[in-house]
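User: quick one, sequence for these tokens?
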């Protein structure tokens, strides 16, 4: 197949970090090329250079048979390159149709937008990606999985020659993943090339023609479909053998640290009751829309409860706000770390000490020496890879950003940790590290309630599993009793 894209000898440096070191990356016409590597391997930097977000420091780019300079996202898009970033690039206060055609509005005359035509065109694109909502629906009212498909519809509207998908399945249900793969197959049949960035090896095996692997900003190698094995890909990505992605030892049951009885929320959660024991990882399974996130938001005081009682260490508590939850010893690592877990413009130090600031103050002033010592200790404890504590957290890889979110809560010494998709969008090496941290925290006596959409993670890390469907608990099982089939049967009940 003739070559569509060649990035030759690409290098990119940031203060204290060589993000890319003479990387060569190519994509043929009508090919699905997977791009894999640990967080921090350089995948996002390479994509952002292709998208015109970052300028390259060295190297040459050839696209569609000629050498090009990609100086801005507008230039990249005009050439026929469409990038769907992992952190979605949508405006929440605009409609689906307005987001799809942003900057390319259909006009009636010179000054007026033709909303009817835009909605009709959007409706057809939405049909292709399986979106059933109205084109006039506000994006802020859609769940993350549907927002992801709006991005795919937007890319299709551009009629691009090359579509880059950065972790496109991280928020999708199994049915939506199947639909996305069907869309990728149809794009490939039309001669469109796709760069598929994912940490989910089984998905890469399904969709990719070839796999390009980066490690520490350098090329490691390219594998064809016939060469792909899970062990080989992981070894090339992390540069070592993983003993086990799931690092969990079984522990005997301890006393109840969190007790929830008949918790309900207006119009959704119904009669939720369960116990969490000290030193236990309690897995919370279910399909998208089952109410798992709504449950932990209610527990943390983010969403209002209509009824129900919460007890910690046997004593009833009133949690009406996140401030109450923190005071009661709860911590929450949210699903969307960039929007809800971090302040991206602030440093690792500032984010890491945020929840613990009341404990670091004296007469209203932050004792900065204690703050620095605390954050340095957490950086070492969690193995956060950062040039220094004053690095902006936005510059860290996804896995290290997730560790900063964990650090923020560990600084406050919680006894209960609520984890919503703790390994979403991070690579297998970082997953192993996060799982090891979780197991260590449980071993030290912390009670952990973990949401995960990945059944192997639920089965591998949980001491017990409760399953939800449409706002209620449909079953509970021990680690020994649980199988994927049993969990799925309860999740669709």
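Assistant:
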């Amino acid at each position: 197949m003739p070559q569509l894209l060649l990035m030759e000898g690409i290098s990119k440096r940031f203060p204290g970090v060589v993000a890319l070191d003479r990387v060569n990356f190519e994509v043929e016409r009508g090919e699905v090329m997977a791009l894999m590597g640990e967080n921090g391997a350089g995948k996002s930097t390479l994509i952002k250079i292709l998208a015109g977000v970052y300028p390259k420091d060295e190297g040459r780019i050839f696209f569609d048979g000629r050498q090009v300079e990609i100086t801005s996202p507008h230039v990249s898009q005009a050439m026929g390159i469409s990038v769907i970033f992992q952190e979605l690039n949508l405006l929440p206060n605009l409609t689906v149709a307005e987001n799809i055609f942003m900057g390319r509005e259909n006009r009636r005359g010179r000054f007026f937008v033709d909303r009817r035509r835009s909605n009709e065109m959007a409706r057809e694109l939405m049909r292709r990606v399986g979106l059933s909502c109205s084109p006039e629906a506000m994006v802020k009212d859609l769940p993350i999985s549907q927002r992801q498909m709006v991005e795919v519809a937007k890319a299709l509207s551009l009629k691009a020659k090359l579509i880059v998908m950065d972790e496109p399945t991280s928020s999708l249900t199994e049915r939506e993943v199947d639909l996305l793969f069907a869309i990728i197959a149809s794009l490939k049949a039309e001669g469109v090339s796709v760069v598929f960035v994912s940490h989910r090896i089984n998905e890469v095996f399904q969709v990719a023609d070839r796999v390009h692997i980066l490690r520490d900003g350098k090329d490691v190698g390219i594998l064809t479909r016939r060469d792909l094995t899970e062990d080989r890909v992981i070894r090339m990505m992390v540069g070592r053998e993983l003993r086990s992605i799931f690092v969990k030892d079984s522990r005997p049951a301890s006393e109840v640290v969190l007790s929830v009885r008949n918790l309900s929320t207006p119009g959704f959660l119904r009669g939720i009751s369960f116990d969490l024991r000290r030193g236990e990882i309690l897995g919370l399974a279910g399909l998208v829309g089952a109410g798992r996130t709504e449950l932990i938001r209610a527990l943390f005081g983010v969403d209002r409860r209509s009824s129900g009682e919460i007890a910690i260490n046997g004593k009833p508590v009133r949690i009406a706000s996140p401030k109450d939850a923190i005071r009661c010893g709860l911590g929450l690592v949210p699903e969307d770390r960039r929007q809800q877990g971090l302040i991206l413009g602030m440093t690792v130090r500032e984010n890491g000490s945020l929840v613990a600031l009341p404990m670091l103050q004296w007469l209203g002033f932050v004792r900065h020496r204690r703050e620095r010592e605390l954050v340095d200790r957490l950086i070492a404890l969690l193995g956060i890879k950062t040039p220094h504590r004053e690095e902006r957290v936005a510059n860290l890889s996804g896995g290290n950003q997730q560790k900063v979110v964990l650090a923020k809560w560990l600084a406050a010494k919680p006894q209960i940790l609520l984890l919503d998709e703790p390994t979403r969008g991070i690579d297998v090496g970082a997953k192993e590290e996060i799982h090891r941290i979780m197991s260590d925290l449980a071993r030290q006596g912390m009670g952990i309630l973990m949401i995960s959409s990945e059944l192997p993670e639920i089965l591998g890390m949980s001491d017990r599993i409760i399953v939800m469907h449409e706002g209620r608990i449909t079953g509970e099982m021990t680690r020994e009793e649980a199988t994927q089939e049993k969990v799925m049967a309860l999740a669709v009940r």
